[in-house]
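Query form — protein Sodium/hydrogen exchanger

QUESTION: What is the three-dimensional structure of this chain?
INPUT:
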Amino acid sequence: MVLALMGLGLKIDRPPSLRGWVSTWRLLAITMPLSIAGAALLGWWLVGLLAPTAILLGAAIAPTDPVLAGEVQVEEPGEGHTSEEGSEPRFALSSEAGLNDGLAFPFTNLAIAIALVGLAPGNWLGEWLLVAVVYRTVVGTLAGIVFGAILARLVFAAVPETRIAQSVRGLEAIAGTLVVYGLTEIIGGYGFIAVFVAALTIRHYERDHEYNESLHRISELAEQMLMALIMVFFGGALVGGLLDPLTTEGLIVALATVFLVRPLAGIVGLAGSGLAWADRGAIAFFGVRGIGSFYYLAHGLNEAAFADADLLWAIVGAIVLVSVLVHGVSASPIMNRLHS
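ANSWER: The structure tokens for Sodium/hydrogen exchanger are given below.
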């Protein structure tokens, strides 16, 4: 996840701004909460999940996966345009994937808090808002900016003089990004947010420096190797019975999450944005679910006891499987059609 977020931040040519990233802010502020609420309500209503378990389901499927969504993301650094990034759908999905992986944490922590202290808001609301939502998000963002600026100074100042040094150029940035993640977590911020923001900071420190391409290539290589390994483990889990606890109602929730919840939430989030309907539809549809969903689910189950944990794994596994198959097959033709 850390490597994927770094690679994603290094690819985005468009400088962060309120107007330039308006599609991103809409997806984060409107589409993401609606997706969480929709999946949670379906889990509670159709499957009969308890409130904390249903909220954990919603939080787990919230992130647009930065690893498996490569076909719908922007190209390499410098290949996008400042204003268009090749196409608005690619930019919106890339920037959303970079940020909502970190922003799913508050909702995961909400599910954990309710599982630990009960549903009554007086038991968790104040601390959750101040710490999980405000403090950790702000610290993660600021840490990404500060550590990213420091890391950018270091990596751009280093000039490889030997052939061996040139061949491994970029590894120091990967190591530095892992340090950014670790330091941010130590001071209480969200490490995923810090990593993406740090990568953006590095990308825009010297926009036209050839080192950006080296950074991107080596991070993408590491990311693809890890993705292949994780997908092998996912396939093994499927063969090993991951979906055995899945009920008919759970399957309906999985299908509805991919084909109804995310698309409808995306359309609502982009209402009035001025984008063409084809672009809105593509952005709304390609909310790829993947490795991040397993990470948040495992994190939540490790922090508190949730009822129907096996069923929850099965539902999330089904969502990821359907998303990988459907979005994987349709991504290239649809995005190429939009671009042309």
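ADDITIONAL NOTE: Confidence is low (pLDDT under 50) at residues 81-86.
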